[in-house]
Design brief:
five-stranded mixed beta sheet, three-stranded antiparallel beta sheet, alpha/beta
Length: about 160
Amino acid sequence: MASRETPATRAARAAGVEFTVHEYAHDPRADSYGLEAAEALEQDPARVFKTLVVDAAGDLTVCVVPVAAQLDLGAIGKRTTMAPTQRAERVTGYVAGGISPLGQRKALPTLVDETALEHATVYVSAGRRGLEIELAPGDLIALTRARVKRIRRAGA
C-alpha cells in the first residue's frame, strides 16, 4: 500500500495532537467511500465521518457529517449546493473520496456535525482513499477551526 503520510497526517503531527492512522484496501467499485471505510475498519458508521465540500452562495465550505447521514444543505444556507468535484479537488488538494478536513491546500471554513461530540474519537479521511485518521473530536474542531452545529438531515 501507499505511504501513510499525507498533508492531513502532517497537519495533525505538526499540531501535536494524538491520532492513529488506519489503512484498508479501498475497493474502487464501492458505492460509498465513507460506508466502505466504516465497514473495512469494523467501526460504527456514527463514528466515521465524511468530508463534503459545498458552495454556499459562491464560497466553499467543508462539512463533516457521519457517513450514514445525509447533509442538510438548508442548515448551511439558502443558496447552498454541493461544490463541483473538480473545484473541490483543486481547492483542497485532495481527490474526491479522499478529501480530508485536515491539511487542505487552502483551509476552508468548516462545519462539523454536533454528533461528533458524542464520541471519544472519530474517523475522517486522512487524505486519500483507503486511509482514515482517528482523533478526538475536539482536536478535529480545533485543527480546522470548525463551527459545530447540526448539519445532518433530520432523522439521521
